[in-house]
From TrEMBL:
Alphabetical UniProt keywords: Aminoacyl-tRNA synthetase, ATP-binding, Ligase, Mitochondrion, Nucleotide-binding, Protein biosynthesis, Transit peptide
Gene Ontology biological-process entries: prolyl-tRNA aminoacylation
Protein name: Probable proline--tRNA ligase, mitochondrial
PANTHER family named among the record's database cross-references: MITOCHONDRIAL RIBOSOME PROTEIN L39/PROLYL-TRNA LIGASE FAMILY MEMBER, PROLINE--TRNA LIGASE, MITOCHONDRIAL-RELATED
Primary location group: mitochondrion
Transmembrane spans: none
Catalytic activity: tRNA(Pro) + L-proline + ATP = L-prolyl-tRNA(Pro) + AMP + diphosphate
SUPFAM superfamilies listed in its UniProt record: Class II aaRS ABD-related, Class II aaRS and biotin synthetases
Protein source organism: Balaenoptera musculus
GO CC annotation terms, alphabetical: mitochondrial matrix
Pfam families: HGTP_anticodon, tRNA-synt_2b
Its EC number(s): 6.1.1.15
Aminoacyl-transfer RNA synthetases class-II family profile domain span: 130-445
Length: 551
């Protein structure tokens, strides 16, 4: 039967009567096959008892969407509401969804009764050394601490050479890092944009970088033969964007535009995990000023923001004189984190504070060019890079503004990069022990890990206290909502779970052990970043955690 023809779409009384008459002849089984938009007349015809429970919700929805008399619609809705209220727990959906409580996303703060449980986390751990080696193939490739630890605890997983899956803990840490970056960039007037990863070849040919970048530039053609590259940086794209704006005035300058996006580089030999890969996240900012003097002021402003960022993360980065490389310009500095695994060789003068990448100096030079004092050699990881570009790009693309005299002038440019995923690996290199990850407090994926007693142990009576403590923390310390994780793997001993927690690097690990049975209960609190272990009451725990800062 064509139910669309006997439905209520036309809305005339005669058609409704025909539909009702025809429906009365159907069995319950036949009724279950009638489309939802025609079953509304069942109710008016007194056939509601034949309608399967699972169709009640669909009837409500479709009845509201199709035309019918207002009085008939009111009667149907009242009947539906009465029927639905009589069903257990409004069970108008599939059995799998009845009683369903929406699961929290990793960034959503759980309320009472919705605790973040470790057993539900996707975290493929490989805590045996031989498992970690098999992930990367040859054992010789595991040449740095951050790579080994991040693979071991399941922060990353190799996808292909130089490319990694970033797993939930790492994504949380990266999102926090991006929030800190946003705060620092926007504090100096930065505006966030997002540019395509695919960049047309003609832009790069205009600056001659299509050829000069060599094989590191990942190139491709579309089905029409048009050439593109996967951008390792966006000087060409942003300058072309600004050049397209014909009404830019000096009153709008300085203009600071930045993004945090994936970048691509065809590394000849990817290594060190996230420290040197083919695909990575970077924050790149591009600035446009009205004069060289104003551009240098902006340059200093951004460098100060970088220093502030690293200070907030607790990283002792050094700003060093650097080469402009393939990006070009007339001035450049790198922000280097001194660690032994670093690939850059640095020269630092303890007397006057001069510092430089050795590639900018004569290799035989042993004295500081500023004060002639002895230079100290060290290694570092480049986590930030700044360039004063002048008019190198704006002159090619005619990126102009109207100056104070009403005449067109070329914009003075700067560009500034931060290696986002590289910073995550670099902080582990700098702060972690050989066996355990340590995070800057602001970047820790979770601030607190609660460990409940083992099932069947003498302390099991304190298990309920652990849950209560979880709820009190998230209610009394609002900034920690979504930051507390409950290790509910009660089939494991407290010792085994504490060992795992140490590896993950939660800033605070709280254990309900033997003293949780005291009156009042005392919890064992491990402050991972200071190495302290203290026993605190519930009130003491809340007071301690109330001081924690998050982003």
């Amino acid at each position: 039967m064509d139910w669309r023809r006997v439905g209520l779409e036309a809305g005339s009384p005669s058609e409704e009567a025909v539909a009702v008459a025809q429906m009365k002849k159907l069995s319950t089984e036949e009724l279950s096959h009638v489309p939802s938009y025609t079953v509304c007349s069942y109710w008016e015809a007194g056939l509601g008892s034949k309608l399967p429970d699972s169709r009640a919700n669909a009837v409500t929805t479709h009845w509201c969407l199709h035309s019918a008399s207002a009085s008939l619609r009111r009667g149907v809705m009242e009947g539906l509401l009465t029927r639905c209220r009589a069903l257990p727990a409004w069970a108008t959906c599939s059995p799998q969804l009845s009683g369903y409580v929406p699961h929290r996303f990793h960034h959503r703060a759980p309320g009472r009764g919705k605790r973040l449980a470790l057993s539900r986390m996707f975290q493929p751990q490989n805590l045996r050394e031989d498992q970690v080696l098999s992930l990367e193939g040859r054992s010789g490739e595991l040449t740095c601490k951050s790579q080994r630890l991040m693979l071991q605890v399941g922060l990353i997983h190799p996808a292909s050479s130089g490319c990694y899956h970033l797993l939930p803990y790492t994504v949380r840490a990266m999102e926090k890092l991006v929030r800190v970056i946003d705060q620092e960039m926007q504090a100096i007037g930065g505006q966030k944009v997002n540019m395509p990863s695919l960049s047309p070849a003609e832009l790069w040919r205009a600056t001659s970088r299509w050829d000069s970048m060599g094989k590191e530039l990942l190139k491709l053609r579309d089905r029409h033969g048009k050439e593109y590259c996967l951008g390792p940086t966006h000087e060409e794209a942003i300058t072309a964007l600004i050049a397209s704006q014909q009404t830019l005035s000096y009153k709008q300058l300085p203009l600071l535009l930045y993004q945090v996006t994936r970048k691509f580089r065809d590394e000849p030999r990817p290594r060190f995990g996230l420290l040197r890969g083919r695909e990575f996240y970077m924050k790149d900012m591009y600035t446009f000023d009205s004069s060289p003097e104003a551009a240098r002021q902006t340059y200093s402003l951004v460098c100060d923001a970088y220093s502030s960022l690293f200070d907030r993360l607790g990283l002792q980065c050094v700003k060093v004189q650097a080469d402009v490389g393939s990006i070009g310009g007339t001035m450049s500095h790198e922000f280097q984190l001194p660690v032994d695994v670093g690939e850059d060789r640095l020269a630092v003068c303890p007397s006057c504070g001069f510092s430089a990448n050795m590639e900018t100096l004569d290799l035989s030079q042993t004295n500081c060019p500023a004060c002639q004092g002895p230079l100290t050699k060290t290694k570092g990881i480049e986590v930030g890079h700044t360039f004063y570009l002048g008019t190198k790009y704006s002159s090619i693309f005619s990126a102009q503004f109207t100056n104070v005299h009403g005449k067109p002038s070329l914009a003075e440019m700067g560009c500034y990069g931060l290696g986002v995923t590289r910073i995550l690996a670099a902080v582990i290199e700098a702060l972690a022990t050989e066996d355990c990850i340590r995070w800057p407090s602001l970047l820790a994926p979770y601030q607190v890990c609660l460990i409940s007693p083992k099932k069947g142990s003498k302390e099991e009576a304190a298990a309920e206290l652990t849950g209560h403590l979880y709820d009190h923390i998230t209610e009394v310390v609002p900034q920690l909502q979504g930051e507390v994780l409950l290790d509910d793997r009660t089939h494991l001993t407290i010792g085994n779970r504490l060992k795992d927690a140490n590896k993950f690097g939660y800033p605070f690990v709280i254990i309900a052990g033997k003293r949780a049975l005291d009156d009042p209960a005392h919890f064992e609190v491990w402050c991972q970043n200071t190495g302290e272990v203290v026993f605190l009451t519930r009130e003491g725990v809340l007071e301690l955690l109330s001081q924690v800062q998050v982003v």
